[in-house]
Here is the input.
Amino acid sequence: MKALEGVKILDFTHVQSGPTCTQLLGWFGADVIKVERPGVGDATRGQLQDIPDVDSLYFTMLNHNKRSVTLNSKSDRGKEILTRLIEECDVMVENFAPGALDRMGFSWERIQEINSRMIYASVKGFGPGPYEDCKVYENVAQCAGGAASTTGMLGGVPTVTGAQIGDSGTGLHLAFGIVTALYQRTHSGKGQRVSCAMQDGVLNLCRVKLRDQQRLDNGPLKEYSQFGEGVEFGEATPRAGNDSGGGQPGRILKCKGWETDPDAYTYFITQAAVWKNICDTIGKEEWKEDPDFATPDARLPRLNEVFNAIEDWTMTKTKFEVLEICNPLNIPVGPILSMKELAEEPSLRETGTIVEVEHPERGTYLTVGNPVKLSDSPSEVVRSPLLGEHTDEILREVVGLSDNDIAAARDEGAI
Ligand code: COA
Here is the structure.
């Protein structure tokens, strides 16, 4: 048995945030029924296509372990079928623009009337308030949730991150909400509404930056490089470049080959507890007892000097040699790994984090498997469905339609 076996998910999601959520539920064994518009489908099927007329990697990599049913939920027949699906499913997930399901005639009140055990989960860009009607995409959420204003180099423009914290991050939050509501339903017998706004999800991931905002009231943020550089703090948490977010100063430093390899860098943290090991490693034994360098507080105004000396050493080693030398000494470092290196990393293949998938139209491609490993519910990655691949089987098995009913619905353009 998989952890969520027996749970039926009515998946009205599209693009990235919602599909991330339902893919996770699918990996844990839920039966995910993805509803798509006939002839159109999730818009990402056709976005960033690398092979003409073949589902894009954007779509395939976010829609594993799902079945696809096509349904025009604005037609009368489509509404009847959707009503039956709501009766049969445990969870309904959607990330339409605000109000879209209400306009279809399926408000939360109506959904509860149809099935009081239904857990109805939504991603929206913003929660209730001045921006609740806005359509929102990834980078808008990163900007509105505090990530962009705190990312980038001091003095540079606000910067978005490659990690999709707005879309995939909110999808993760939503999946957690759904599983929590399923657990509560085991006691209450009732469904409930689960909402997660992308702005809120991003802000939650930027929690430490709101921490720093409040610390600013009581003095400068001494672990930020700008403190040592004598640059005054303004009113808001500043961009901190590659400074470490915690109390232990860290930076990205050049390694051997940086002149030609854009990823020949290492992260290096000057963990206070291993300062003496760092001094020995980089050939600065005298700093162990020097009052200007021996304590964390003494080093804070001199971080540039400290990291320049460490970088003089890291530039003589590859990023992997830095790791091999520092790890046994408990000095926290991490090579900057490119997507190419990650795609080729054998240990990630072995754990199922990087998976090769076979697709009937595209051939073999790589994807990221389930990053959450359950010892009693292993995840296997099943290729994404073609548009409407499971329409007939779902209408027969879940909705209970006869072959004649299915043919009639098809003639009417409802499926
Ligand atoms: N049958 C009939 N109509 C369908 C349908 C179906 N199976 N599936 C979707 N539609 C309709 C919707 O009802 C909607 O119609 P309406 O505008 O008349 O009410 C229409 O298709 C378009 O849906 P919408 O969600 O508005 O798509 P969009 O392309 O205009 O906007 C987003 C895309 C992502 C900006 C928007 O959905 C959004 O803001 N979502 C919430 C935040 C979010 O998740 N953003 C991140 C996405 S990764």
About this structure: The pocket of coenzyme A is lined by residues 15-18, 35, 37, 71-74, 95-97, 100, 103-104, 123-125, 135-137, 167 (CB under 6 Å). The chain has two domains: 8-205+357-411, 207-331. The mean pLDDT is 97. The first helix runs from residue 17 to 27.
